[in-house]
Specification:
The protein is mostly helical. It is built from 13 helices and 2 strands, in the order H-E-E-H-H-H-H-H-H-H-H-H-H-H-H. A hairpin with a 5-residue loop joins strand 1 and strand 2.
């Protein structure tokens, strides 16, 4: 039971009641004030965020407009009647590698005409290498390299280069008489019947295919003016001159094609692997370059061959019992 000390007196009860009534009157106002304060704070925060967002949008919008602004339109490229790609503007066309249109067209055509896949039948001829392999003159990559180096620098390779250079110059200058005499001399300047077949057959095929797929103005009169068989180096010289392709790269591409064909024949006959074949081609790079430079500077008075063993190989191949190649 509660004691007297625990019971409140009348004055205390009166004060408690007054305090209670006052609190009930004040509490709604306090609650309302707190709510208003919180609402005001929230609204201020929202307004601040909207201001920041507005500033961000104002700042970003110009950046998007600059970023999305269309750049200069690429210039259209037009296909000319000659099949060469050009630009419709007056600015000379240049590809990423730095070649202008004539240079790119010349490179494209040389790579096509003097490629192993160009159908002139070069894979059918060995230029006497088949007999040299049977005779034991060529037995491995090293002996094949030495044999071909001699053929290039001192044999039929150099002579063909001279004929190509002279034919190119005669055709470029329009000297039809000189071109005809040169074609006759080149056709007669062969050491064996099979070698004559090899060079004339490839020359005829080269002209027929280029006239069918790559004909150009002035080519037909040049060919008709020769009035006879056109051997392979003369045919390459005439066609490249008609297409206005420079002589120096034509010479280099021609020697690369001839050397590659010889190596291909040797690889099948020895036989050699692909890696050894590429090593031989790499080893002959300087010989090809030097022979091409000599042929460019030579005249018809410099024609001559000192590769007697290779010439004999071409003659002996005519009576060789077992043969894979036509020369």
């Amino acid at each position: 039971m509660p004691t007297l000390a625990m019971l409140p007196n009348m004055a205390m009860l009166t004060n408690i009641m007054r305090t209670t009534i006052t609190m009930r009157m004040i509490m709604p106002d306090m609650i309302m004030h707190r709510t208003r304060t919180r609402t005001t704070t929230i609204m201020a925060a929202i307004i601040t965020m909207m201001s920041i967002a507005s500033m961000s949008i104002t700042t970003v919008t110009p950046m998007l407009m600059i970023t999305n602004k269309p750049g200069p339109k690429p210039r259209r490229r037009a296909i000319a009647a000659t099949g060469m790609v050009g630009e419709s503007s007056t600015t000379p066309a240049t590809d990423p590698a730095g070649l202008n249109e004539p240079e790119a067209a010349a490179l494209y055509r040389l790579m096509t005409w003097l490629s192993p896949s160009f159908p002139v039948g070069s894979f059918s001829y060995s230029s006497g290498i088949e007999w040299a392999v049977e005779a034991g003159d060529i037995v491995d990559a090293a002996s094949l390299r030495d044999w071909l180096a001699a053929m290039l620098a001192d044999g039929s390779g150099f002579c063909d280069g001279v004929f190509l250079a002279q034919a190119h110059r005669a055709a470029a200058s329009g000297d039809q008489m000189a071109l005809r005499e040169l074609a006759e001399l080149a056709a007669a300047f062969v050491p064996s019947r099979e070698r004559q077949l090899e060079s004339s057959a490839q020359g005829r095929a080269f002209i027929e295919i280029t006239r069918s797929a790559w004909n150009c103005d002035g080519l037909d009169p040049m060919i008709a003016g020769c009035d006879g068989a056109i051997v392979y180096p003369v045919a390459v010289g005439i066609v490249s001159a008609a297409h206005r392709i420079a002589l120096a790269p034509t010479m280099h591409a021609f020697f690369h094609a001839v050397t590659s064909n010889w190596i291909s024949a040797g690889a099948r006959l020895v036989p050699l692997g692909q890696t050894d074949s590429q090593r031989v081609l790499a080893a002959l790079e300087l010989v090809v370059a030097a022979t091409g430079a000599r042929a460019l500077a030579a005249t018809l008075d410099d024609l001559g061959s000192a590769t007697f063993r290779a010439d004999l190989a071409g003659m002996r191949h005519e009576t060789q019992y077992t043969r894979l190649f036509r020369s």
